[in-house]
Amino acid sequence: MTRVALAGYGSAGRTIHAPRLLEAGLDIVAVSTRDAERAAAVRAGLPGAAVVPTLDDLLALEDVDLVVLATPSGAHAEHVRAVVDAGRPCVVDKPLAVDAERGAAVVRHAERAGVPLTVFQNRRYDPEHTTVRALLADGRVGEPFRYEMRWERWRPVPKDRWRENAPWEDGGGILLDLHTHLVDAAVQLFGPVTHVAATVAARSTPAEDDAFLLVTHTSGVVSHLSATSLAAAPGPRVRLLGRAAAYVQADFEGEAHVWSGQRDPDADHCGWLYGGDEPMAVPRVRSSQADLYRAVAAALASPDPQAAMPIDPWDAVHTLAVVDAARVAAAEQRVVEVVTPRR
């Protein structure tokens, strides 16, 4: 069984990483946190795990096969370097870093050291995403030309956290939090991004909380990627337009929306296909975010762990390059070419 040391037990560590690690059959042997309440939560929820205060203490432990970083985004690059220098395989939550150059430097550092590294792009394993991939593979929409994906919420009273308060240089804001998911999903479906136009604003928090990206892929598909905390009427999660049909997906993780006509008819279906006389419910493709950790465990047991990792860390570098270009595009009100650092 893969023995995991988990760095961080805030919202991401406690509610996202730990449950998925356990579901995947990995063994959480240690957790680092300085917070007394979080330490108590570890002891209550993971009674067999050691609790230590710092990442350095975590890295000093023996009998650890994998380190998972669920620490604040602004510290990811520094923390990955520390894990690599300790010679421990690493999964880092997205974003890999706060910009593409720092992300690329971290990946090169891991490559030079020969230490396996991957990025927790867990949304690739959502059934909503795998259903879209299957729909495209089956050719049911014909040639796709426009993809819309939204992560829109209604939070007129913002949360008081580092994500809402920190500048992007310290890991805050919606671009690094949510657009790193949206861009990654679009790239997986339609290929790398060549150009981006964007609007980015901080409307209710010190960090940006409202952003829209219009991106052009090498395939010719154009993606509209929207995330905001101020949508009292969130748009459909996904709208995919093709020359033969369109696909609309409204339901997502129980979040409220106003598209009652597009609600999934049952748990076995995900979204609707339009183009004939009547809309057709699309069968849901089953998958689980725990599959990412199952793939990591399998990679560590393989002859070439880095090659077998489920997410190439250079994918995360390209995502950050798109985010970097979006900041320039919004500030200068122009279309910006995406330049991804070389391997």
UniProtKB/TrEMBL annotation:
Domain GFO/IDH/MocA-like oxidoreductase, first and last residues per copy: 130-246
UniProt KW keywords: NAD, Oxidoreductase
Keyword Membrane: no
Domain Gfo/Idh/MocA-like oxidoreductase N-terminal positions: 3-119
InterPro entries recorded: Gfo/Idh/MocA-like_OxRdtase_N (IPR000683), Gfo/Idh/MocA_oxidoreduct (IPR051317), GFO_IDH_MocA-like_dom (IPR055170), NAD(P)-bd_dom_sf (IPR036291)
Any one GO molecular function term: oxidoreductase activity
Keyword hit for NAD: yes
Family: Belongs to the Gfo/Idh/MocA family.
Protein name listed in UniProt: Putative dehydrogenase
Organism lineage string: Bacteria, Bacillati, Actinomycetota, Actinomycetes, Micrococcales
